[in-house]
Amino acid sequence: MDCIRGALGRADALVITGGLGPTTDDLTREAIAQALGVPLQHHPELEDELRAWFASRNYVPSETIMRQAYLPQGAAALPNSNGTAPGVHAQTADGKLIFAVPGVPREMRAMIERSVIPALLERLEGERQIIVSRVLRTFGIGESALAEPLEDILTTATNPTVAPLIFGNTEVHLRLTAKARDEAEAKILLDGMEAQIRARAGEYIFGVDDETMASVVLQMLRERGLLLVVAESLTGGVLSALLTDVPGASESFVGGIIAYADWIKVAVLDVPVEYLDGAAGAVNAQTAAAMAEGLDVEMDMDGGDDFIGLSTTGEAGPESQSGAPVGTVFIGLHHAGQTQTFERSFSGDRDTIRKRTALAALDVLRRYLQNQPVGEGSK
Amino acid sequence: MDCIRGALGRADALVITGGLGPTTDDLTREAIAQALGVPLQHHPELEDELRAWFASRNYVPSETIMRQAYLPQGAAALPNSNGTAPGVHAQTADGKLIFAVPGVPREMRAMIERSVIPALLERLEGERQIIVSRVLRTFGIGESALAEPLEDILTTATNPTVAPLIFGNTEVHLRLTAKARDEAEAKILLDGMEAQIRARAGEYIFGVDDETMASVVLQMLRERGLLLVVAESLTGGVLSALLTDVPGASESFVGGIIAYADWIKVAVLDVPVEYLDGAAGAVNAQTAAAMAEGLDVEMDMDGGDDFIGLSTTGEAGPESQSGAPVGTVFIGLHHAGQTQTFERSFSGDRDTIRKRTALAALDVLRRYLQNQPVGEGSK
After folding, report:
1. Spatial distance between the Cα atoms of A76 and A70, rounded to a whole number of angstroms
2. Of chain B's two ends, which shows fewer C-beta atoms within 10 Å, N or C?
3. B319 in helix, strand or coil?
4. Is residue A45 packed enough to be buried (19+ CB in 10 Å), middle (13-18) or exposed (0-12)?
């Protein structure tokens, strides 16, 4: 309650996430009621909706879930399209807004987009100024190295502003934020700034906003009528999962082999066993090449020019199992009878190395596809 | 700065994460200095350490990174074992503590464990009371259904307290928190509460604290001398990645086939093509069974009794590609010449359905292994 009152002293609207669940440590409804100086009120229509939600799924509701049928007196419920807890939309005596949404991200996002933002926009009608952001996503360059050619933009640009941030320990994002009267004006400002940044650092920008490295690569494969198969060693499923995370991946991603154990590389991908006998085990260029080529037979690619084989092999750590230095990885790319390999060296822990390797493999493919024609036969 | 001063009004120690990076929107050092009413001071020894860090990696440091060589006057630097930004340890005139650590999770966690917690414990010396938490992790039951048989514990237990929370939209965790004079006393309290909870809901508890479903299953496989291979359709790598996320997975996880496209199931796993011809495409029990059995030949398992094949097939959505209702999944488990299949129905979006399916497959395997003897020949 003190937090809510303190925040109301600094802002005209609050958005609170979490604490709307059914258990006794979910206290947001109570805190809002106390901050407003009103009691909690039971809403029979909300209880009916809750019972109907459970009935439609053949679940028996626990009685504790009925705590979600209460609201601070005077507040309205916000519908929850992805769960049971209704949100709360309340107003103070002096017209400040309080929104409470669930903490669970899927439920929170849906309620913010469908209820909270429209309510805020309605409040702003007439004094409209919108804020629009755009994120340029980069891979393969560190935050301070990326900031260097952009130093003057980062320190002096005021509209849009540009803020760098590290994402997932693997990407560096540049968040452009514009203030304007409407979407069209904001787009002009953002387009102009994006063009400036691309002129200086465009090589590293693989996507914008929600585009992931995988979604961008799948789009490029689709435009060129190409299908992708993978052979994963150290990445052990991470590369495949990045691709299949994208709805519609099946249009271009066929599947692959997780050759986690070395003998699987030999038995299933026909990697010559002598390639694994050196000081670095399976962590070398010829193994990466043989894995990518082995997909041809194994996955029934029949040497077709519309298939690309992509492989990863390397040492993720924490101790070196292979004999190769931790962080050493090799990527293989096989297409139209040609095989290329790429060596990378990543720092970080085991998870970071695996994730960076998967993204690096996709980035290698992205840069290769940029030079492949979009042509006849493409879907 | 206002936030820092406000927080100091409510607490004896603050921990701030983020804002210690090299770019101009990293303002935590400045905010602490302002809150304390002191200037920022350059530390030549920190600058030397930064230059040495870059030199040892053959990187050229940008000059902007040298902003990390400044501290509020009177503050000490906290070493960063996983990055360049030193943390900050400052004290107000009336003895309150301010710690600033990086926002990047790996760097934050290491600094909290190695510097902040020891400093706090040192401050508490003599009035020592420690707080110890333990998390019981469950799968396969919703939050309110789990809370029901535990209602009295959740509402009345004071030491330890028990708090339920949803984790990753897939698990429900019970966080037990005990206050005691030392670790041994805390352990007794936590053990007692854990036993009470297991007596009522133990079936759903698969692990404790950092144990993941995958790490628990890999441990059980290791104890029984069994090796695991997987065939993934809708999960598309997520199941393999959960397993290979665990260091040492290679002791028990050999690899698998990502049979994302239906023709891969036929061509590589020998699933009879007529199994895929029905109204639900590849989403049926016999396809799951055939995929798990197909691993035998494909992954060179040679019908060995020490191999287990685990498969997933289903419809993740958002629209139904297969003809089966979105959320319908089948899991196949093949071991020692026997095959079992399991049908599940999950709600949620595409990502949630894939993730829940991967965990459900591991949970099926976990429950199966509980009935398999730990015996001779186990590693």
Report:
1. 10
2. C
3. coil
4. exposed
Cα-flanking dihedrals φ and ψ of residue A226, to 5°?
-110, 150
Location of structure tokens 């707080």: B131
Q: Which of A21, A59, A64 sits opposite B151 (nearest CB)?
A: A64
Domain B2-124, CATH number (from 3.40.50.200, 3.40.980.10, 3.40.50.1860, 3.30.465.10):
3.40.980.10
Domain at B213-369: CATH code: 3.90.950.20
Which residue intervals of chain A bear CATH 3.90.950.20?
Answer: 213-369
**Both tokens assigned to A131:** 């804020």
Indicate yes or no: CB of B255 within 8 angstroms of CB of A255.
no
Pairing of strands A13-17, A40-42: unpaired
CA distance to partner chain B, nearest, from residue A125 (Å): 31
Closest-CA distance of chain B to residue A246, Å: 9
Structure tokens at A263: 């003998």
- State the amino acid at position A372 in one-letter form: Q
**Across the strands, what pairs with B130?**
B180
Nearest to A23 among B61, B106, B154 (CB): B154
Q: B22 to chain A: which residues are within 8 Å by CB?
A: 143-144, 147
Whether A206 and A287 have beta carbons less than 8 Å apart is answered as: no
Q: What are the structure tokens assigned to B61, written together? A: 């440091």
- Name residue B296's amino acid: D
Q: Backbone phi, then psi, for B180, in 5-degree steps?
A: -155, 175
With a CB-CB cutoff of 8 Å, which residues 321-350 of chain A face chain B? 321, 347-350
Nearest CB neighbour to B237, from listed A59, A82, A241: A241
Chain A hits for B147, Cβ within 8 Å: 22-23, 62, 64
B 149-208 residues inside an 8 A Cβ radius of A: 151, 154-155, 163-164, 166, 169
Which CATH architecture group holds B130-208?
Answer: 2-Layer Sandwich (3.30)
Q: Does the interface ipTM go beyond 0.85?
A: no
Domain limits, CATH 3.30.70.2860, in chain A: 130-208
| pLDDT digit string (tens) for chain B, length 379 residues | 778 888 988 899 999 999 998 887 889 999 999 999 999 999 999 999 999 988 888 888 878 888 899 999 999 999 998 888 999 999 999 889 999 999 989 899 999 999 999 888 888 776 678 899 999 999 999 998 999 999 999 999 999 999 999 998 899 999 999 999 889 999 999 999 999 999 999 999 999 999 999 999 999 999 999 999 999 999 999 999 999 999 999 999 999 999 999 999 999 999 999 999 999 999 999 999 999 999 988 887 777 889 999 999 999 999 999 999 999 999 999 999 999 999 999 999 999 999 999 999 999 999 999 988 776 544 3
What count of Cα atoms within 13 Å lies in the side-chain half-sphere of residue A348? Answer: 17
CB atoms within 10 A of CB B16: 19
CA B376 to chain centre: 32
Contact B259 A255 (CB under 8 A): yes
